[in-house]
Design brief:
The chain has 443 residues and is of the alpha+beta class. 22% of the residues lie in helices and 38% in strands. The N and C termini lie far apart (50 Å).
Length: 443
């Protein structure tokens, strides 16, 4: 792992290598350590260390991008030259905003934990052992992964922007399984590895497996459902992909297009992009070095706005919210630190208040049906359970939903007060459990 002084010295030195009018360097350093286990035995232990430099050259509104992991002087200069040559071959883009200087911002000190950065294979193995040990008495096998990660991001440009941030994360996922397709799932995520409790994760997963050991088949139709945080997070993330970004809004491919200021969900739904939340502690700037902002997306059911990078912010006539991705992406900006406001209920209260319904642990393989209507499909898995008269009475054969997310979020009866950290596809969300009526299953 490189230190801040080393990284910034390299970036300061290499910025002078640009011959084009303006240039930008983004360095990402990642130290990933992973222990995988299956059938209650460790099957893989890996450690991967990598450093990647993204180079963006700008000349008369023409932009070129090159990427390298050869980070000696010759390697970086070669990448700068390649980016400049690519820029010269492009047509000018009149909408491209010139690079600019942004104030240096410091991230939360609670984003980095030394214990996580130095987490040993033995410690990860101990948590895997706890999962296997807890599963064995019920004739269940433990399968999952425990990964720890240290990530450093630094940005510098020819206009004087300088940003640096280091973060850690620890993430344990567990699926326990047995005969007759019995299974249960749980996970735990934290910046601090000391918060990861293999025994607690195993207790949750095993409990789900045992509750769903006896399964019944339910016909397609509309049901009252209780979605645990991981299941809700999948849907919130798809809203981010489908319409919480400025690119899709501008191209009218977003469900938010023409709806800003209008009601699109129930009054009890508020979703905010909040990288500064004390439990998320996200990187405080984006990959252009722009300081991030707290952005209301949906507030009390009203569509409020979207996140943006500099390019799409300029096209919309607004300021960037600091949500640019690395310069070689073509997806446009999307939120990566969403917080969904909770309510005053709990999973136990939701179950107790349900005459008949289905409890969902999480979804498998969600995909789009109709993006503009936020219609998606996916299968419940690893803990789908039947609720009758306020109690979980049996498991349910996994069911395939076909549901509009916005319609579901218009039918929310209750939200839990407790919020859970849910990582997914590079995003980190803070999410409650939901009770929803008229939720549609296709089979």
């Amino acid at each position: 792992m490189l230190y801040k002084e080393q990284i910034m010295k390299v970036l300061d030195g290499m910025i002078g290598g640009f011959k084009a009018a303006k240039g930008e360097l983004v360095l990402i350093e990642e130290d990933l350590n992973l222990t995988r286990f299956a059938e209650s035995a460790i099957i893989q232990n890996i450690s991967r260390y990598d450093r990647t430099m993204f180079v963006r050259a700008v000349a008369d509104k023409r932009v070129g991008v090159a990427v390298t992991n050869q980070l000696d002087t010759d390697g970086i200069l070669k990448a700068i030259k390649a980016a400049e040559e690519i820029a010269l071959m492009q047509n000018p883009d009149p909408d491209f905003p010139d690079l600019a200087k942004y104030p240096t911002v410091e991230g939360s000190k609670k984003a980095y934990y030394k214990d996580t950065a130095e987490l040993s294979p033995n410690k990860r193995a101990e948590e895997a052992k706890e999962c296997a040990k807890k599963s064995a008495p019920q004739n269940l096998k433990a399968t999952g992964a425990y990964q720890s990660n240290v990530k450093t991001t630094a940005v510098a440009n020819t206009e004087g922007t300088r940003q640096f941030f280091t973060e850690t994360s620890a993430w344990l996922t567990l699926t326990v399984s047995g005969k007759n397709s019995v299974s249960g799932w749980a996970q735990s995520f934290s910046r601090n590895s000391k918060d990861i409790d293999g025994n607690g994760v195993a207790e949750t997963a095993v409990g789900k497996a045992m509750l769903s050991a006896k399964k019944v088949k339910m016909p397609p139709g509309e049901y009252t459902v209780i979605l645990e945080p991981a299941a809700v997070a999948d849907m919130v993330l798809f809203l981010g992909f489908l319409g919480f970004g400025a690119k899709t809004l501008l191209s009218h491919r977003s469900f938010m297009a023409g709806k800003i200021g209008q009601k699109i969900t129930g009054d009890n739904i508020t979703i905010i992009e909040d990288p500064f939340n004390s439990r998320i502690n996200a990187m405080p700037f984006d990959y252009e070095g722009v300081p991030k902002k707290k952005v209301p997306l949906i507030e009390n059911g009203i569509a409020k706005g979207v996140v943006s990078n500099r390019y799409y912010a300029a096209k919309l006539g607004i300021k960037s919210t600091g949500n640019a991705l690395p310069p070689n992406n073509n997806y446009g900006p999307y939120p990566k630190a969403m917080v969904m406001k909770g309510g005053n209920s709990s999973i136990d209260k939701m179950i107790a208040s349900t005459k008949k319904g289905i409890l969902i642990t999480h979804w498998w393989y969600i995909n789009f049906l109709n993006p503009m209507k936020t219609q998606i499909t996916g299968t419940s898995i690893d803990g789908t359970m039947l609720i009758e008269d306020g109690k979980v009475v049996s498991g349910v054969d996994d069911m395939r939903m076909g549901q509009s997310i916005l319609e579901a979020f218009s039918n929310v009866e209750a939200l839990s007060s407790e919020l859970t950290l849910c990582p997914k596809y590079g995003a980190l969300m803070l999410i409650p459990s939901l009770k929803i009526h008229n939720f549609n299953f296709m089979g």
